[in-house]
Structure formats: C-alpha cells, structure tokens
Amino acid sequence: MAATDPRLDAYIANAAEFAQPILTHLRAVVHAACPGVEETIKWGLPHFTHKGMLCHMAAFKAHCAFGFSKADLVMAAHAKTGAMGEFGRIASVADLPSKATLVKFIKAAKKLNDEGVKSSAQKKPATPLPLGVPGDLLAALVAAGPALANFDVFTAAQKREYVAWLDEAKTDATRQRRLAQAVEWIAQAKTRNWKYAKC
C-alpha cells in the first residue's frame, strides 16, 4: 500500500469492531485502484484525494458508509439510498460490491479528477445564497462525530433553518440550549423542523 496517514490508522482502530474490516478493505481497494492516492481527514472523516476530492468513508454505531465526491457522475443509476454515501448502510464487507466493481468506480472517479471534470453538485448555483455557519455551531458539529457529515448533506435551506434558529436566540443561555438541541437532532440526521415533516 502507498503512503498512509496515521490519522486513518487511528480512525479505523477506534471504530466499532464490525467496522474495522470494512474500513480496512475499502482503504486497500482505493489504494489498489488509484496508486499514489493521498489520505486525509476532513470534517472528522477519512477522505482520499487525487487531484481533488476522490472518495470518503465513515463508521457509525451500526453501519459504515462509502461514497464519491462526484457520485452523480461516477455512480449514476447504481447509487443506493439510506445512508451517507452511495452504497447504503454497510454492515459487513459482504454488503459491498465486488472488489472489481469498486475498482471500476474508483478508476472512474480518478479519471474525472484527472480530466478536471466538475460534478453537477459542484457547479455554481443560479442564485447563490451564501451561508455563514456560526463558529460555535461548526465547532459543536465537529466535536459530535457524524453530526457534521449529516449537516453537510442537508440542503442550504435546511442549514439556514438551524442557523436562523440559533441567531434568533435572545440570550446566551437560550442560544446554548438551542445549540445543544441542534447538535443532538443533526447527529440523528433530523432537520430543524423534523417534527412537522410529512412521513
């Protein structure tokens, strides 16, 4: 295997026992498919880069996730739903596609990065509305493990609902209570108004 980042070693070692062989397998497949890939930790999660973001993996209490930065182009109709990433909730190595299939996807992602192709998700929106995430919210999300990853996949409107709710607090005590509640809900992948969402 190529050069590795000791932070990924630590992440895998600290993951639940069921997750360790999954993460180890994914890491080895990424290195095999993209020699020279670089490892890093972003937003508290293991990422692999090659001329830009390539793919990422994560371990949760009962499942793992694996996905691509340009999933809309790499995976197309193959993506599953139900978890962060494009392979659904991965509870064992058997839940993953074959090594050959994973290698095919990783090589496709590498080729896109080599060619400088941008995903549709990376294209500039028609009406950009910048979202400033308050420092206290960002720090709390980073400290809460999967909360930041969940927040990252929320729509801009869903993120703004949490930011506005915090900013509307009249006192620091109220803001701190709301911050704690927000992080708890986001860690559960709940939007600010989840109680009123249609099932």
Automatic annotation (TrEMBL):
Domain YdhG-like: 20-109
Gene3D superfamilies per UniProt: 3.90.1150.200
Matching InterPro entries: YdhG-like
Domain of life according to the entry: Bacteria
Protein name: YdhG-like domain-containing protein
Species name: Massilia glaciei
